[in-house]
Design a protein that fits this description.
313 residues; globular; binds glyceraldehyde-3-phosphate; binds 1,3-dihydroxyacetonephosphate; binds zinc ion
């Protein structure tokens, strides 16, 4: 099956009360692990590429890895630019085979965010590509840019209608207390999300797909494996999965997961290398890393996102 946009995926997800997983990809083993899990669970999936991933692996490698994966699968797959910072990177991805882009104007003023997002939407729609915008600002680390919790801000529900109407975006990322990275809450702090904001946004934008960034749960199982095998991740805390399940039943149609993949991949490598100090064939230590990606993605699809079997409906 060829790459698709997220339009139909989101319509069905909204109506069905589930969400689609948007998983960050950086290399072949991550693409393979995600695609095997999604294929076996018959789940539509979004593979997303950040500017950092594009710089690391190069655009054509990533696009062609995803195209190669399509040869072994029959599920709907969208290729998405994660956190596009400006018009130029969005244009390069639209021209270069992506079916969806995010323009992240959340650090600009409201009017500047609208102007930039509208410009990307006009170009994208003219080329059959869909666009995700963002209102509100998440804490955490993206591409070496650290947003402190002081600079983070929740989405203001009274702005969302105007933003969507003036820009023409196809989906909207909002800030309700999630954050990027593996340290989302302080030790002892009770994890909380502002479901009141999500519900208010949903009222103002009926039937409109909402996106949740910074939604890794930070599996303590993988953290333990990393720490037992020479790593040091103190106090890594993620979003409780029951909160993600709740969000998926509401207007959230896309849930972004990257840190969980990184932890799964790293746990696989660290454990293998610790147990087999004499081995140096990358295929040996990348196999458990890829297996962990598959296990994690299957778990998310079946137990958190609720999108298993959705590719057949
Ligand atoms: O939102 C950020 C994603 O986790 C991508 O991270 O910019 O380090 O590739 P990155
Ligand atoms: P996590 O760091 O919680 O995995 O968030 C990823 C993300 O939002 C990618 O855009
Ligand atoms: Zn993000």
């Amino acid at each position: 099956m060829a790459l698709v946009t997220t339009k139909e995926m989101f319509q069905k997800a909204y109506a069905g009360g589930y969400a689609i997983g948007a998983f960050n990809v950086n290399n072949m083993e991550i693409v393979q692990g995600i695609m095997e899990a999604a294929g076996e669970e018959k789940a539509p999936v979004i593979l997303q590429v950040s500017a950092g991933a594009r710089k690391y692996a190069k655009h054509a490698y990533l696009v062609n890895l995803v195209k190669a994966a399509l040869e072994y699968s029959d599920i709907p797959v969208a290729l998405h630019l994660d956190h596009g910072a400006d018009f130029e990177i969005c244009k390069a991805c639209i021209d270069g085979g992506f079916t969806s882009v995010m323009i992240d104007g959340s650090h600009h003023s409201f009017d500047e965010n609208i102007a930039l997002t509208k410009k990307v939407v006009e170009y994208a729609h003219a080329h059959g590509v869909v666009v995700e915008g963002e209102l509100g600002r998440l804490a955490g680390i993206e591409d070496d840019v650290k947003v402190s919790s002081v600079d983070a801000s929740y989405t203001r529900p009274d702005e969302v209608e105007e933003f969507v109407n003036r820009t023409g975006v196809d989906s909207l990322a909002i800030a309700i207390g999630t954050s990027h990275g593996a340290y989302k809450f302080k030790p002892g702090q009770k994890p909380q999300l502002r479901f009141d904001i999500l519900e208010e946004v949903e009222k103002r934008l009926p039937n409109f797909p909402i996106v949740l960034h910074g939604a890794s749960s930070v599996s303590q199982e993988f953290v333990k494996i990393i720490n037992e095998n020479g790593g040091k991740l103190d106090d890594a805390i993620g979003i409780p999965e029951d909160m993600l399940r709740q969000a998926a039943k509401l207007a959230v149609c896309k849930i972004n997961i990257d840190s969980d993949l990184r932890l799964a991949f790293t746990a696989g490598i660290r454990k293998y290398m610790n147990e087999n100090p004499g081995h140096f064939d990358p295929r040996q230590y990348l196999t458990p890393a890829r297996d962990n990606i598959k296990t994690l993605v299957r778990h998310k699809i079946v137990n958190v996102l609720g999108c298993a079997g959705a590719a057949e409906k």
